[in-house]
């Protein structure tokens, strides 16, 4: 019997390899190569351009950190924009907040959404919620042109290469600031502090040129380069380090999560010295 293995090269001389049980989808949209693999150790895996995007085994570490930190920082998030995240994991977590009235997902690649709905329902189940609108459009273009306002903007972007580079530039953050309601905030995944230290530090500087409150925090995602992953938050008013834990407990009551709970909220912001003391 022939064995199938998939390897993402994460450095010149190293990578992450998993054994594949079945190839559920393999194709190419007009934007990228797309694969959904059923693996022995990671469950179902979404791969874009030969790069791990999300896996059933460790996706909660990423999606819960990306969604719940900003949503619990904002005292009453009602309208949320998610840029990217066509797998649906971020939308699923956003919908757990009772205050949320609407979620707009702006995803450039319709094929990603279609195939994740078909093959990864544990992530994409939120797309059927009546509060969710899926908009197939370039995220930077949407943010620049929309007349809608949001309380929280979550940028679930790919790596900063090719067309995605604009999602990590000052103009993009300024455009997001322009569509935030009073007291609004944004958060974006900002790569590995181990493999992309200078990038993480420079992103913090760029955010600080746009937002009065900027915080970075970390999570652990086994399949991402270096396993430690960063997020950067820009806020107009609310500081995630000053949230009231008693209030968090009230809002969190009854919510089902794997990683996040109020007692760990501020711990996400404990940065290693090599990131904290530079920039």
Which assembly state applies to the chains in this document?
A: single chain
Domains (count):
2
* CATH fold node name of the largest domain: Rossmann fold
Assigned CATH superfamily of the largest domain: Vaccinia Virus protein VP39
State mean pLDDT (0 to 100 scale).
Answer: 96
Strand element count: 12
Number of helices: 9
Helix content: 25-40%
H/E topology pattern:
EEEEEHEHEHHEHEHEHEEHH
Taking strands numbered 1, 2, ... along the chain, how are they ordered across the largest sheet?
A: 8-7-6-9-10-12-11
Binned strand content: 25-35%
Query: What is the rounded Rg?
Result: 18 Å
- Uncertain residue segments: none
Second-tier CATH architecture of the largest domain: 3-Layer(aba) Sandwich
| Bulk shape | globular
What's the CATH C level of the largest domain? Alpha Beta
What gap, in angstroms, lies between the N and C termini? 53 Å
């Amino acid at each position: 019997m022939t064995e199938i293995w998939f390897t993402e090269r994460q450095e010149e001389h190293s990578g992450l390899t998993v054994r594949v049980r079945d190839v559920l989808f393999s194709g190419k949209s007009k934007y990228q190569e797309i694969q959904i693999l059923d693996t022995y150790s990671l469950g179902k895996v979404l791969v874009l351009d030969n790069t791990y995007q999300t896996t059933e085994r460790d996706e909660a570490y990423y999606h819960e950190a990306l969604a719940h930190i900003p949503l619990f920082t904002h005292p009453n998030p009602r309208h949320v924009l998610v840029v990217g995240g066509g797998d649906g994991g971020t939308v699923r977590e956003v919908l757990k907040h009772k205050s949320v009235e609407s979620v707009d997902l702006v995803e450039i690649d319709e094929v990603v959404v279609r195939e994740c709905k078909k093959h990864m329902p544990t992530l994409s189940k939120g797309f059927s919620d009546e509060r969710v609108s899926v908009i197939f459009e370039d995220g930077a273009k949407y943010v620049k042109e929309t007349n809608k306002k949001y309380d929280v903007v979550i940028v679930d972007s790919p790596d900063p290469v090719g067309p995605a580079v604009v999602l990590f530039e000052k103009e993009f953050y300024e455009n997001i600031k322009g569509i935030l309601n009073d007291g609004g905030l944004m958060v974006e995944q900002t790569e590995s502090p181990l493999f992309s230290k200078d990038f993480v530090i420079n992103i913090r500087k760029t955010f600080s040129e746009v937002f009065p409150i900027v915080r970075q925090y970390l999570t652990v995602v086994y399949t991402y380069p270096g396993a430690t992953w960063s997020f950067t938050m820009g806020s107009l008013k609310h500081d995630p380090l000053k949230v009231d834990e008693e209030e968090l407990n009230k809002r969190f009551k009854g919510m089902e999560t794997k990683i996040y709970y109020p007692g760990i909220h501020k711990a996400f912001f404990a940065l290693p010295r090599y990131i904290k003391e530079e920039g």
